[in-house]
Amino acid sequence: MIADVIEPIVHCDVAIVGGGPSGLAAAIQLRKAGIEHVVVLDREAEVGGIPRHCGHPPFGWPEFRRVLKGPEYASRLHEAAIAEGVDIRTNVNVVRIESGPLLHVSTSAGTAKIEAAKVLLATGARETPRSARLVSGTRPMGVLTTGALQSMVYLKSRKPFLHPVIVGTELVAYSALLTCRHAGIRPVAMIEERKRPTAWKSSIWLPRLLGIRSLFNTELVSIEGKERVSGVAVRLDSGHIEQIPCDGVVFCGQFVAESTLACMGHLKLNSGCGIPVTDQFGRCSDPNIFAAGNVLHPADSSGRCWREGIRTASHIVRSLAGDLPSAFDTVAIESTSPTVRYVFPQRLVFDHRSTKSVSLWVKFSDEAQGTLHLKIGDRSVVSKRVRTLPEKQVQLAVSSSILSSKPTSLKLVFEPSS
Ligand SMILES: Cc1cc2nc3c(=O)[nH]c(=O)nc-3n(C[C@H](O)[C@H](O)[C@H](O)COP(=O)(O)OP(=O)(O)OC[C@H]3O[C@@H](n4cnc5c(N)ncnc54)[C@H](O)[C@@H]3O)c2cc1C
After folding, report:
1. Which SS3 state, helix, strand or coil, does residue 162 take?
2. Dist. CA 230 → ligand 1 center (Å)
3. Cα of 294 to ligand 1 centre, how many Å?
4. Count of Cβ atoms closer than 10 Å to residue 242 Cβ
5. What is the 29 CA–ligand 1 centroid distance (Å)?
6. How many A from CA of 51 to the centre of ligand 1?
7. What is residue 313's three-state secondary structure?
8. What's the pTM?
9. Domain 2-126+255-324 homologous superfamily, CATH
10. Which of 44, 123, 203 to mutate to test the pocket of ligand 1 (most atoms within 8 A of CB)?
């Protein structure tokens, strides 16, 4: 069933907020596991999430063993969900979540409520826009994030500018370059505050091949222009300020979790970065609410979010059957190292029946080299030598033997090499 109308109150087994790769994967898996009524709610006109806006490859290898463009990938997931009998509701914005769980939604026809035995938050992540980056200058038209640029180019066939400056070198910045190329837009420069690309070192070749100037150790000072962008001022490595004429600016990356719902509700968030706190089962501080995908680790590939959706669905099935270890036997992982941006999951359930190891994923805010420890008291129970770049994640495996008896505290400590 697909609909964008909703009855005043809907009762279901599982309500999924967000119809991107993680939400749709979870919905399909839940139906395959025999869960009767699974509802996917999305505020957009169609489900598919971010890939629907990305008219370039590579999507779909883990899922379909095919290299697909984003929209094709999104429609395959959509079709698979329909074939499994998922109840898809689009143009439905979830505006509040309460314990119960109870969702308050807003549609063009008014408001409604959804009562579910379990809820999955799969609301994804978004890039940091200009307003949150504190860039000075005027406020002209032509300043976008990659996501906004893609929805204009791929969904509305619009060309918002001809010669923009691309800000940032995370992987998504290369997606912005490909989008510009597709639309016949020719960026004048790509600028990065760090001394090397945030994505792979080799990614430097794409702008070079496209004849686009790459400036490292370069900071965006201000955006200029009255109605439309007419240029930007940048501080170069030498300290010199250069004016670059351009008609647009694309802010790329610096992803943050789309966690407004969790934030306004009763769920606990990781204080540093607004990510809902979960255990290794994807269970939030309210044990009837789960989370999966980029809302937990902004931002990863669609394949990883899809896999996580499937895994979390199997935990939800166990939870519906009352078979998941108690949420009360959790210990929070305390992390005080300034270079650690986040650890996910942020708490672990200890259970003497544990037979599987658990992966902790740690993201650093900057380049880091040293040793990462998981400590119980002062004793290191897991350690790993780390040499990593910003935005890359480090995996730390916690064995089932460690998870079998509950400690009083857990600490994640990073010791930089001297
Ligand atoms: C520009 C760009 C290029 C990318 N390129 C690639 C690539 O080439 N290959 C690749 O593998 N990955 C790529 N990715 C990453 C990939 O798109 C993400 O990993 C994936 O989409 C994350 O899936 P998700 O389900 O967690 O979230 P999303 O895809 O973000 O889906 C979240 C959904 O939740 C909905 N939603 C949010 N809040 C609410 C609410 N309150 N009420 C109702 N609905 C709500 C949104 O409308 C959205 O549909 C790219 C990402 C970006 C931004």
Report:
1. coil
2. 31
3. 7
4. 15
5. 19
6. 6
7. helix
8. 0.94
9. FAD/NAD(P)-binding domain (3.50.50.60)
10. 123
Q: CB–CB of 246/188 below 8 Å? A: yes
Give the position, in ligand 1's atom list, of the atom nearest the Cα of 21. 25
Instruction: Tell me the CATH number for domain 330-416.
Output: 2.60.40.10
Q: What is the DSSP string of 243-309?
A: EEE-SEEEE----EE--HHHHHTT--B-TTT-PBP--TTSB-SSTTEEE-GGGTSSS--HHHHHHHH
The fold of the 130-251 domain, in CATH, is FAD/NAD(P)-binding domain (3.50.50)
For a mutational test of ligand 1's pocket, the pick from 17, 50, 308, i.e. the residue with the most ligand atoms closer than 8 A to its C-beta, is 50
Cβ neighbours of residue 311 under 8 Å, at least 6 residues apart?
282, 292
One digit per residue, the tens of pLDDT, for the chain of length 418 reads 545 556 777 899 999 999 999 999 999 999 999 999 999 999 999 999 999 999 889 999 999 999 999 999 999 999 999 999 999 999 999 999 999 999 999 998 889 999 999 999 999 999 999 988 888 888 999 999 999 999 999 999 999 999 999 999 999 999 999 999 999 999 999 999 999 898 887 888 889 999 999 999 999 999 999 999 999 999 999 999 999 999 999 999 999 999 989 888 899 998 776 899 999 999 999 999 999 999 999 989 999 999 999 999 999 999 999 999 988 889 999 998 888 989 999 999 998 777 789 999 999 988 899 999 999 988 999 999 999 888 888 999 999 989 888 899 999 999 999 7
Q: Which atom of ligand 1 is nearest to the CA of 23?
A: 25
Read off φ and ψ for residue 80, nearest 5 degrees: -60, -40
Per domain, the residue ranges of the chain are: 2-126+255-324, 130-251, 330-416
Residue 190, number of CB atoms within 10 A of its CB: 28
Q: Whose CA is nearest to atom 13 of ligand 1?
A: 301
Q: Position of tokens 């430097």? A: 204
Report which ligand 1 atom has the smallest distance to the Cα of 309. Answer: 25
Domains 2-126+255-324 and 130-251 share a fold: yes
> Does residue 351 sit in helix, strand or coil?
coil
